[in-house]
Amino acid sequence: MGTVAAGDTPAQSADETAPASLPERAADTTPDNPWPLALLSRKLKEHIERAPQVWIEGQVIELNRRGTNAYLTLRDVEDEISLSASAWSQVMGRLKEPLERGSRVVALVKPEMWLKTGRLNMQVRDIRPVGLGDLLARIERLRHALGAEGLFSESLKKRLPLLPHRIGLITGRDSDAKKDVLRNAALRWPAVHFEIREVAVQGGGAVGEVIRALRELDAMPEVDVIVIARGGGSLEDLLPFSDERLVRAVAAAETPVVSAIGHEADRPILDDVADLRASTPTDAAKRIVPDVAEELSRVRQCRDRLERQIALHVHREEQQLALLRTRPVLARPEEMLQARHQDVDRLVARAHHAVSGAVVRGEDAVRHLRAQVRSLSPQQTLDRGYSVVQVLDGPAAAVIRAPEDAPEGTPLRVRLARGALVARSEGELTATRAGKIHKTHTGEEGTAHE
Asked: Is the pTM here over 0.85, yes or no?
């Protein structure tokens, strides 16, 4: 493998081996001026080896020891992705127990590239097996974190339908869990219908397959409840059902979900988020559909109770009718009519008296008002000798209230108590003029004018 001298940068050491006529950057290469393969390999090696060391988790699927080295192939615990790794004997010697194929480990690795073959390798600098205690502690931490978010709240639990029309079943391929659910559900309710999705229930791809099946069934409107069932197994086998992605997918489902994983003692996180936890697949079958025999028995019991209640009700009503028929109002109903007849006569008399009194009082009030109106009538004033003087030809026959309203020569209409006179104004009456008019009437002067 190539090395870099102290004080030189990786780019400098690679460029020193390249002829000056070669492009400095990969983007500048052309068919006429390419890089040598060795130059590309060295640059890739320098770039990869600048990556920092990192802790990773995986499963050992291959393990070979040759001399002072151990060569491993690590695979992701969920996806079908693997990488080659190598470790010195002193690293492997720090383990209390030797590794075996299938062991789950966490390792501190540093990426490197083998220059001659172009292979990417992970140099293991520390490696530790993941025991059951570590897995349990990790599951409990996740359980606590999801619980703090409220994903396990009882208010989010959906009620299962009393009699589902179609049941979605997610289970292993040709598994005992599938057979248990189908058999026990059919024994309890022969008309039950299932929509089955067979998936991997352990291993790297289990989580993704279960989530896809869950979403597919959740999107089907005819599916009323979904059962996720798996038989018993080791803690590692049941790890997919404590995966955070699956737990969140179940929490987001609109259809009620029943968890039936393992045995009574098994407790994956799926049990906490599901709307109903069944201890076993058989228990799930008993809890999602009613027992037809029990339902028929309940129907018979309800029918018997209904008949007894109806008979009791009829008997009570018969007794009530017999009691009512002995009462005086039913034995001699004419007495009730006579009493009401007397009440009606009394009320009619009171009403007649009240109306007569109101009429008399009204007549008195009318007479009093007529007298008041007559006393205020203009005719009464005229009868006492007064008259009303109006302009004969003026608009609306205006009433004369002052001398200036009728200048000299104005034709007038004088209204009396009986009839009216026509006159003409001689102007304002002064003391001197009044004397002249008086003398005229007494004969001392000429004839008085009209």
From this structure: no
